[in-house]
Design brief:
- By secondary structure, this protein is α+β, with helices and mostly antiparallel strands.
- It contains five helices and six strands; from the N terminus they run H-E-E-E-H-H-E-H-H-E-E.
C-alpha cells in the first residue's frame, strides 16, 4: 500500500463534514471532529502566497489553520515552518495483508454496525465526543465496529 493509498483510506474512513477546492488546496470542515478531518492539503502546484489563501478560508469557517503534510510535501512543510507552524500529532500508519493476522479466539471480538450501546458507552467513557461519532456515521459503507473482550471486560 502506498502513502497515497493510505491517504485515500484515511479520507474514506474518517471523512470531513464537507470538503472543497480553493486554488491548489483541498479544504475540509471537520465539524469539530478533530484535526485530520479539518486539515487542508495541497493538491498540486502552489506558492507561498497560496498559504495565506488557505489560512483565510479555514478562518472563514471558524477553524484554526491546520495543514496535513503528506509524502512529497517537504517544500510545504518547510514553508509552513518558516511561518511558525509546528508538527503536531504526527500519524504513523501501518499496513499488512489480512492473511498475516491470525483469527481472533472465539467469543473475543464482535464486529457490528450500527454501534451497540456498549461500544457507545466505552467511547463516551474514553472521551469520544458526539462530533467524532458523527464522523463514523458519515463514512460510507461497508463499515464496522469491532468490540473486543479481554478477561470478561469489554474493550
Amino acid at each position: 500500500m502506498t502513502p497515497a493509498d493510505l491517504s485515500n483510506v484515511m479520507e474514506a474512513t474518517w471523512p470531513p463534514a464537507r470538503a472543497w477546492r480553493a486554488g491548489p488546496w483541498t479544504l475540509r470542515d471537520g465539524a469539530c471532529g478533530g484535526k485530520r478531518v479539518s486539515a487542508a492539503t495541497v493538491e498540486g502546484l502552489w506558492s507561498v502566497d497560496d498559504v495565506q489563501m488557505a489560512e483565510a478560508a479555514m478562518r472563514d469557517v471558524a477553524q484554526k489553520p491546520l495543514f496535513l503534510i503528506r509524502d512529497g510535501d517537504g517544500a510545504l512543510d518547510t514553508a509552513l515552518a518558516a511561518r511558525g507552524y509546528a508538527i503536531i500529532d504526527p500519524v504513523v500508519a501501518y499496513s499488512a495483508p489480512v492473511t498475516r493476522f491470525d483469527a481472533p479466539a472465539q467469543m473475543t471480538t464482535f464486529p457490528h454496525w450500527p454501534p451497540l450501546s456498549i461500544a457507545e458507552n466505552l467511547w463516551a467513557h474514553c472521551g469520544t465526543d458526539p462530533a467524532r461519532i458523527a464522523i463514523m456515521h458519515r463514512a460510507k459503507n461497508p463499515k464496522t465496529v469491532i468490540l473486543s473482550r479481554a478477561a470478561d471486560h469489554p474493550s
